[in-house]
Amino acid sequence: MSALVVRQVKMSRYSRARKIHGQTVEGRRAVLESLRAGRDINKIVMVEGIELGPQLQEIVVLASESDIEVQAVSRKELEAQSQTKKSQGVIAVVPDPRYHEPEELMLEAEHGDIPPLLVMLDGIEDPHNLGAIARTANAAGAHGIIIPERRAVGITPGAVRASAGALEHIKVSRVTNLNRTIERLKDLGMTIIGLDADGDVTYMEADFTAPTVIVVGSEGSGLSRLVREKCDHIASIPMIGQLSSLNASVSAGIVLYEAFRQRS
Fold it and tell me: Could you give the CA distance from residue 257 to residue 124 in angstroms, rounded to a whole number?
């Protein structure tokens, strides 16, 4: 699209912004992926006079095509309303995130020819870890993520930004009880493989070709006792250095790509 057309779209869609109310998606890539995914967006707020590089141009054009209002504010006003303080000059105001039932996540696999692969997070509290895991899960072909309602992070602006937009493309289920959810998934034929340093198999020995749930423990204490007891296998990641554990998102990434390798 020519710069002239972009300027015309920009001028026709911009209006002065009022205070932002509601959930936000922040950062150029995250906002762009929200638009590409067709997510419901109430409005987009941008810094007035910002230089429109390729990503911002596409944001403006897609917003116009979807009849989404684009508002302009000063950089100071935008940053004052940013929840992440890393908006890159653009924020999308969206409805509260929609969560799905675990069975809906499994149905995502019906569109392809590989068994369901889900990721369950047992008490992950850092939004950056949730975002990073979502990004890797989407890239490795997982069909969804399951998180608990309590003592765990949900889909926040920080998590969406850390996912680089992946949370717009992978479904998330938020459940009241992980242990009961594991039982439901077992009844549906899923194999539950938890990740922990003290495993009965290494992640390279584990079989991820069947319908599988990979369970990642919390940043500080790992898998909770009851969740660990309900896992069919505990897989470890061999380490030879001085440290005894890896970041939760790194562990998830290593094992997700082993699952991807086995399924390819």
Answer: 20
Which helix (H) or strand (E) element contains residue 232?
A: none
Q: DSSP alpha helices (H): ranges in the chain?
A: 3-13, 28-36, 54-65, 75-81, 102-107, 127-139, 157-162, 178-187, 225-230, 248-263
Residues 6+ apart with CB under 8 A from 126: 153, 219, 248
In the predicted model, residues of the chain with pLDDT beneath 50 are: 1-17
| Tokens describing residue 209 | 């070709």
Q: Which of 228, 256, 25 is nearest to 134 (CA)?
A: 256
Identify the helix (H) or strand (E) that includes residue 118. Answer: strand 117-122
Among 208, 225, 214, 157, smallest CA distance to 185 is for 214
Q: What is the pLDDT of residue 243?
A: 77
Give the Cα separation of 102 and 106 in Å (integer): 7
Domains within the chain, CATH numbers bracketed: 3-94 (3.30.1330.30), 102-263 (3.40.1280.10)
- Among residues 37, 213, 233, the alpha carbon closest in space to that of 137 is found at 213
Number of residues in the chain: 264
Summarize pLDDT for 202-218 with one digit per residue, the tens: 999 999 999 999 999 99
Contact predicate 185/158, CB 8 Å: no
The neighbouring-strand residues paired with 90 are 46
CA atoms within 13 A of residue 180's CA, in its CB half-sphere? 6
